## 1
Amino acid sequence: MMRETLEGLSFSRLEAILAAAEVNPVHAHAVFGAVQRRLLGTDLKSAQGILPPVQRWLSGEAAIPPCRLKAVDETPSGDGFTRKYLLGMADGAEVEAVQMGFPGRFTACLSSQVGCAMGCVFCATGQMGFTRNLTAGEIVAQAHHIERELRRTNPGERLRNIVMMGMGEPLHNFDPVMEALGIITDNRGLNIGPARVAVSTVGYVPGIQKLTRHPMRYSLAVSLHGVSDEERGKLVPINQRWPLSEVLEACREYSAIKRARVFFAWTLIRGVNDSDDHARRLVDLLRGMNAHVNLIPLNPTDGFVGQMPDEARVRSFQQIIQDAKIPSTVRQRRGIDVNAGCGQLKSKRRSKQTLYS
Ligand code: SAH
Ligand code: SF4
């Protein structure tokens, strides 16, 4: 069982913890502001506005420790658009967090698990297997790390968007992810608008259903990659448990109940799912739905032989989707020179170590 950390305490949880430690919960405002807005988790005791009763709690047995994430590796990219961090946690596990974007539009891509149990064949994280879930504090602390770096390198700027598209399947770690997003969107903290938070899932249907009933209205992104159960099942093994029809039904329900557009991710793999025929069948699947398609040319990984399509193929695929009046974007492979694909920094570092040790 991983311990609770300061970064993972929602405002109401913090009030309850202070009350249980016989500290007046009125101090929650000062503590939450210091941790979540001023990002002083590790220096809380000496922070301005932290009064003796809280200092005594912090020195005592009932104190909740900060989540210390250590930057183990960092890759500034040549394009100035992506910066990727490998962050080490208390037990030595490592996850990736990525800063993307430009002034006014900075986005953090966060991890939800160490590794992933879903085993998608083209994904570096899937190729690692599953180690453990992250705690709410470990998820929030990734956002803090990126926000801190932003404040240092781009004074006056702040994080505007969060995407749960790093390592792991966020809906397979539902409660800690929702807890973390509740804290990140709290207007006493980082104050990121819920509409600017996207949760990406491989199509874990029970999780989509839970998200539909969750009070917050985050953006939903669903990774499809295949138009038939046969084709999708080869890339995304959990399609055998939750087939396409069930995934799309859960998306329709989400869209209807939340009155929201659903974002569909399609990783384009040369000769596998990138033909005009695939594009037309994708259009058929999404007909009548409030949908947006994100096309991602494959980032090559060591564990998968597939290749990315050339630009002309990508344009042709996108044209068919556009002609059907479905909005779409091609996600720039901006990180490719720094291995910014999901899980790739970590797996690259691991293979380097095996090579030289
Ligand atoms: N587990 C969630 C979120 C993390 S993966 C999900 O699968 O949606 C985020 C996105 O990166 C997914 O759309 C996934 O399909 C895509 N992805 C993973 N590996 C990739 C690769 N090697 N090249 C291109 N896209 C990849
Ligand atoms: Fe897990 Fe997503 Fe990678 Fe699939 S694509 S293995 S669900 S992180």
Note: The chain is about 35% helix and 15% strand.
## 2
Amino acid sequence: MSLVETLYRTRNLSDTELTTFLTTDRFDQELFRMATERRREFYGEDVYLRGLVELTNYCKNDCFYCGIRRSNTLLDRYRLSLDTILTCCKTGYELGYRTFVLQGGEDPFFHDDRVIEIVSEIRKQYPDCAITLSLGERFRESYQKFFDAGANRYLLRHETADAEHYAKLHPESMNLERRKECLWYLKEIGYQVGTGFMVGSPFQTTECLIADLRFLQQLQPAMIGIGPFIVHRDTPFHLYPSGSLSLTLRLIAMLRLMFPYALIPATTALGTIDPQGRELGLRAGANVVMPNLSPVEVRRKYELYDNKLHTDKEAAENKILLANSVAAAGYATVTDIGNVKPDNRQQKTTPSCSKTQ
Ligand code: SAM
């Protein structure tokens, strides 16, 4: 049996075998073929749409890779009002989106009561939609309150599952244990949890990527978002190279075989490093796209990295362009809440939901 077949059947490989996979392109063709087969088995041709609303580019954190980090004084900061957020959702709903993703920097202005007000209002107006939050690390009680107000999904990338690597990407005030703790809390509360990591971030080794895959095996998240690290000129990492398209695509295909049930986006970062990145991500096994619903005038200000896509296909209004690019990859966008598919085999093997794991 080839290594790809083993991964397809067992959804697992040894560290040595994963290293082989990650360090050569010689399995790529077979890998992409099998990943496509698995993806079609679970999700057919469907590509789910998530309308992304970027609430705020203020952030109290100072992650070394991120363009909206606190220390970037060159950035023009903004916050969206409740009315503006609701207008974004209305536009999205009319375009056929049934999931709204509210993302932002860790901005104290969006304290618990404010988030609850936003979530409750969206829940009231759009009872048939999923509400996803991506607002960083919060207390368990806050996550619980947001859930009770109607949020059902939460995205929080772990960024890297190697503690030493984590410390090289973040200031001392942040640590991997806290990040993981948040993810376990979210899972315990009942959110559909999304996590993920950047590919090719400075100091990342193959061992770091294996640690990422092992952590995902423990957490069994509903959604896995990965994208290349992309340099931002006004961050401490401005001299480092961006991550590679080919390694990101290979990892997407590996994730599809290891977590066949997962919702995996073809991310904006992928579309930014290569004009065909989104389509290639879908061909590699991704099944979600997250077009931008934020007001046009703030899009360029949510600049996590240089040249972040904020026009053409990225703009939610360009529905036809987006549908065409998804069709070019051999798939079709659907108006559907797009829940994670049940996976009988996963239910038998998933570790119980405990943060001690
Ligand atoms: N504050 C929330 C959080 O920490 O999850 C959400 C916003 S945060 C800016 C969203 C994601 O952007 C991060 O999880 C990170 O992986 C990604 N990101 C930030 N800077 C990046 C860069 N230079 N290249 C690629 N992705 C980046």
Note: Residues 347-357 have pLDDT under 50 and may be disordered.
